[in-house]
Amino acid sequence: MSPLIDSHGRTKRKLRISLTDRCNFRCTYCMPEHPDWLPRKSLLERDEIARLARLFVAQGIDQIRLTGGEPLLRRDLVECIRAIDALREHGLRRLSMTTNASRIAPVAATLVAAGIDDFNVSLDAVDAAVFQRLTKREIAPVLDGIQALADAGASVKLNAVVVRGDNEGEVVPLLEWAMARGLPLRFIEYMPLDAPGHWRRDAVVSEAEMLAAISARHSVESLPRESDPASPYRVDGHYPLGIISTVSHPFCATCDRLRITATGELFTCLFSPVGTPLGARMREGADDETLGATVRRAVWLKDAGYAARPGPVERTITMHAMGG
Ligand code: SAM
Ligand code: SF4
Predict the structure, then answer these.
(1) Is the shortest distance between the CB of 21 and ligand 2 below 6 Å?
(2) Which of 52, 64, 275, 277 is the most exposed place for a label (fewest CB within 10 A)?
(3) Could you tell me where the DSSP H helices lie in the chain?
(4) Percent of the chain clearing pLDDT 70 (strictly above)
């Protein structure tokens, strides 16, 4: 089948699948303090996830990232990974996971053996008090999780969202902590995807501000941009740093991603006001051909993205339910 392409000429290669909207953290930039969880029955079953993943791989998706909520809260996580790992013979090249890592230590080696190629771990601060303020949880289990992943020989990258007034003072300490351990790091500008009415433009610490803070202590060289959403930099001549600056420099023109929520809604853009309910269509009995045609139409209609209409989106779904 020909690859998934939208009317702006962007080919889709990457799919993020949210395994659950549940999370054991309460990151202030991601979800309301008292979230309403989705009804359990509405979450996709493992077979449904595997069927959708197969459908997308058949249409040219070759990289899948499992996310959430917190994917580690999914009881059948290992079976979900194995079911998707089986798609390698159909064209899947990479299977990844984004996690807060707080519960990963006991299962790190199992997840690698089941098929996860690389992990993105969210770590927004190395100072325990700052971490606690942002996530409402303790840092120690996360640091243990990062160590367990390293011990399991996993490939790990760190992600840090930077919010003014919360953790902008952590930019340099986080960088130096990650550099000392040889862990690649990406800073992420705070996006308007949290609890409605929470995000403020002036809470966004821009890529330029982060670079200014880092440049005061380190040499920073800008590298040519590739298909990754992060602008790449080389720090002190050797260390790879990325900055995802969706707000100050949207990368919509080269976006190759799609997202499926935990209930099976297809969001062609992180900022789309509505999704396409593939999960509901599956449960109504749609066959693969009908689902495939629904996906192709939704992808074709993908709009220009955040670059075309910056600012908060009017919708009920927040980041923990969307999957980041
Ligand atoms: N629980 C997992 C974790 O924290 O890594 C996976 C889900 S989380 C929604 C996925 C990513 O979205 C994380 O890297 C998180 O930092 C990021 N994220 C959440 N809310 C965000 C926001 N408002 N702006 C920018 N990134 C955000
Ligand atoms: Fe949970 Fe991840 Fe959202 Fe934090 S960023 S609340 S860990 S889903």
Answers:
(1) no
(2) 277
(3) 46-58, 77-85, 108-114, 128-135, 140-151, 171-181, 207-215, 278-283, 288-300, 319-322
(4) 94
